[in-house]
Every structure is written in structure tokens, then in C-alpha cells.
Write a structure and sequence with these properties.
By secondary structure, the protein is an all-alpha fold. It has 2 domains: about 80 residues, no CATH class; about 110 residues, no CATH class. It has 9 helices and no strands. The protein starts with a helix and ends in an 8-residue tail after the last helix.
């Protein structure tokens, strides 16, 4: 494992993991500004590890799983930091928060039970939701007030992303980080089925 972490993309992922306990300490000490800055830096490492993995041709199964581990530890941690430091955003909108959290953790549980892995499939919807959610979290932690519009946009996009991940995991016996979206996965499966039928030799007729 230590050999695998020697690559630059995995080192950036490891840095993100090491940053999480530091931000927990900052959150418990009420340092909202530093949590916001630290979260922004963590997201920067998330972007850079993917960028350098593609640029240096160091994409690997370990790297994808390592990245998913970091993401799935950072995201729920960020929710708790928001609860510790900015409780009003939860108390003012309890229903939509409950729906978003329930679907998110359902997708994680299904992934762990069915595939022994976190349900982070890097879908297009997940990337959009992550960008909006992180923007909201950083803005809320750094600013004195939060934006209700940005909050609802973040929660609705997160609900859609988590629901898509959950449906994919329930529908398919194998999942990976290259599925893209539910529509693309279904269309790809249909094409594979049609090609299989087309390539299967016809059975001779029996008189």
C-alpha cells in the first residue's frame, strides 16, 4: 500500500485524509473560518488528484477507491461541521435535510452491503452536486449568513445524485466509476445485450 501512495495523485488524496482530523479539531474549537478555508483546500486536492492521475497516466483501481474513501469521509464530516458551527441551516429546513441525508446514507449502505464498497460512482450528477454543495458549505462557514437559494440548490442536486447512485446499485450487479449516469448505464447495457444477440450464431433447423 505504501508503494501505491508514492504516486502524486494518491499523495494528494492522502493529504485530504490527513486534513480531516485537523478540521474536526477546528470545528470543535469553533473556528468556522478555518474550517471553511480547510474545506476549500481539501476540495482543491480532490480536483488535483484527478487531474494529475489523468495527466501522468496514473489512473488505477486503488486510486479510485482511495479517492472514494476520502470523499466519503470528508462529505459527512462537512455535514457535522456545519451542524456544530451553523445549526440554523438545519433547524430552518429540517424536512429537505432529512430527505437528503436519508437517501445519501441509503446509497452508502446499499453499496457496502451489496458491493463491499462506498457508493461513490463519480456520476455526472454527483460532480455537479458536489460542486454546488461544497460551494454552499464553504460560503456558509466563511460568511456570517447563508444563502437559502444556494442551500436548496445544493440539497436538491444532492438528492438527485444520491437517488441515481442508489438506483444504479439496486439495478446492476456490477458498478464502477465509469458509468457516468443512469441513462448511459442503461443504454450501454441495452447495446451490449443487442450485440450479444447479434453475435450469437443461429441454431440450425431440425427437420
Amino acid at each position: 500500500m505504501f508503494e501505491k501512495i508514492k504516486s502524486l495523485p494518491n499523495q494528494l488524496t492522502a493529504l485530504r485524509l490527513l486534513l480531516i482530523p485537523v478540521l474536526w479539531v477546528c470545528a470543535f474549537r469553533g473556528l468556522s473560518l478555518w474550517v471553511g478555508i480547510g474545506l476549500a483546500f481539501a476540495i482543491l486536492t480532490d480536483f488535483l488528484d484527478g487531474f494529475f492521475a489523468r495527466k501522468l497516466h496514473q489512473i488505477s483501481s486503488f486510486g479510485a477507491k482511495f479517492d472514494s474513501l476520502a470523499d466519503n469521509l470528508l462529505q459527512p464530516s462537512a455535514l457535522v461541521w456545519l451542524w456544530i458551527l451553523k445549526q440554523s441551516i438545519f433547524l430552518d429546513h429540517p424536512i429537505i435535510w432529512g430527505i437528503a441525508i436519508a437517501i445519501y446514507f441509503s446509497s452508502l449502505i446499499v453499496g457496502l452491503v451489496k458491493f463491499k464498497r462506498f457508493g461513490n460512482l463519480h456520476l455526472y450528477s454527483s460532480k455537479f452536486a458536489a460542486a454546488i454543495t461544497v460551494s454552499f458549505a464553504i460560503h456558509t462557514l466563511i460568511a456570517s449568513q447563508y444563502s437559502a437559494v444556494l442551500l436548496y440548490l445544493a440539497l436538491i442536486s444532492s438528492i438527485i445524485s444520491s437517488a441515481e447512485t442508489l438506483i444504479l446499485q439496486l439495478m446492476f450487479n456490477q458498478v464502477n466509476e465509469h458509468m457516468g449516469s443512469l441513462f448511459l448505464a442503461i443504454n450501454r447495457k441495452r447495446e451490449e445485450r443487442e450485440n450479444k444477440v447479434y453475435l450469437t450464431p443461429s441454431q440450425p433447423k431440425v427437420n
